[in-house]
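The freezer alarm interrupted the setup, so I double-checked each line after restarting. Inputs confirmed:
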Amino acid sequence: MTARPLVTVYNEKNEATASQIKLPAVFRAPIRPDLVSFIHDQISKNKRQARAVSTEAGKQSSAESWGTGRAVARIPRVRGGGTHRSGQAACGNMCRGGHMFAPLKVWRRWHRRVNVAQKRYAITSAIAASGVPSLVQARGHVVDNVAEIPFVVSDKVEGFRKTKEAVSFLRRSHLWADVEKVYNSKRYRAGVGKMRNRRYKQKLGPLIIYGQDSAIARAFRNIPGVDVLNVERLNLLKVAPGGHLGRLIIWTESAFKKLDAIYGTPSTPSELKKGFVLPTAKMANPDFSRIIRSEEVVNAVRRARKVKSTPKVHHNPLKKFKLMAALNPYATVLRDAAHKKQKV
Amino acid sequence: MVDAKKLPQVPETILKRRKQKAEIREKIKANKVKAAKKAEEKKGKIFKRAEKYVTEYRKRQQDQLRLKREAEKSGNIYVPEEPKLAFVIRIRGINQLHPRPRKVLQLLRLRQINNGVFVKLNKATIQMLRIAEPYIAWGYPNLKTVHDLVYKRGFAKVNHKRIPITNNEIIEENLGKEDIICMEDLVHEIFNVGPNFKRTTNFLWPFKLNNPTGGWEKKTNHFVEGGDFGNREDQISALVSKML
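Predicted 3D structure, all chains:
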């Protein structure tokens, strides 16, 4: 499937323009959900902030063990008197008011380093997946009336200043249904995140990738669910959110044209990513069942050997005459002779 | 192949597969007919062989009788041929065995109590049987014993597996080279101690017999002392029929 068809560019009113761009080679990169999932997992750890329990938590008591001989457990106990607290156990993970087991430390390894080549592989995979309508739909985007996937739009969109313009563009292009999905999905987060400034959750809508730095982000940023990215600085966390392939991506014409320069083609290496060549798939034709059922393979392969089923149960031929006759065809003659003799 | 306006009703691959399947079915039918014919021929062959053997055994028996009677008539004694075939049964269990008889029993493939094997008798094997004497009962089986053992308790050693002999194909596949293709051939080869005796008996797994109905006399004594072990010559047939 390394054919690279022409992709039509649409204008902001969703009419097909005359210009057509050859599909960038990135879209034929191998789609590796396992790799994308792994890399996404690693990368998403890099924005974490350290958290830990206070170093003195549960240890701020001058408790000392009473030792043996006093008919109490040997756990350290609070000194002094005059209050309930005196003589109570302290300083153990099992004690009330004591420190926890294995107090959390800030020097936990929060971040993960990922090989650059793997990061680049993941991004190309995610971009390739965004060009497959079934994957985009499977991820949950509403793409019923979208003109073409990958969806490329003229650079006029990069000139938008007002959110009104952005909204009417999305409506015209039949992408508003995806945004409406986002509106309808806004709900409270389950759990304590609610009171930690993460009150709401909602789905993600389309992702807009632009080619030239402009104020496009300002037009689109207030529309819930819509993300905006520069094509030279793609973020896997946005292109494959949750580690799942197939985000609905709206490319501007200049961004789409830049892809061949950024990622290269099988014949030309990338101009912007040093030493990067598009990954190649392990199987040129991945339709394995089709291959093994093809005429060429079937004719070249020998017959399947029938494993001889060995008889397990043994019946006694001396008692079952049919078996006897099967083993020794002469047995019928002998039996008849014996019968005759008996009769006489 | 397809006119530009209308596609064929049935996809081409399905039509192709139908044709292929029909061809395969024809082939299978033809092969079945061939196989049936072969089976018929083989059956005829086995029939003739069995017939031949029956006359052979009968002739041998009559011969022995005739020679004996002739000798008696002229006041001589007829000394029949020394027996060539023995059937050996292991009588005792596996504990407390002296290493030498233990090794002999292993060589005879008698690794379990009440296991039986056919043995060709010559100086070497007779001496082996003498070493293992207290642990075995042996003798010279008659035709009926051999026949019944092979049919009722005959299992083949195929691919290191113990397989019941449910049809003659098993025998033919393994002993076809020695021209032994059916049960009757097996019996004949064993009873006559033919040139392929060793291969034949080795093809058979050691016979696993029951304890004799009516019990043993005394396993710890020799047969001549009123016990069970040792050479009991023709009486082995009676014992085997109780253990079969």
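Quick read of the result. Chain A has a mean pLDDT of 94.
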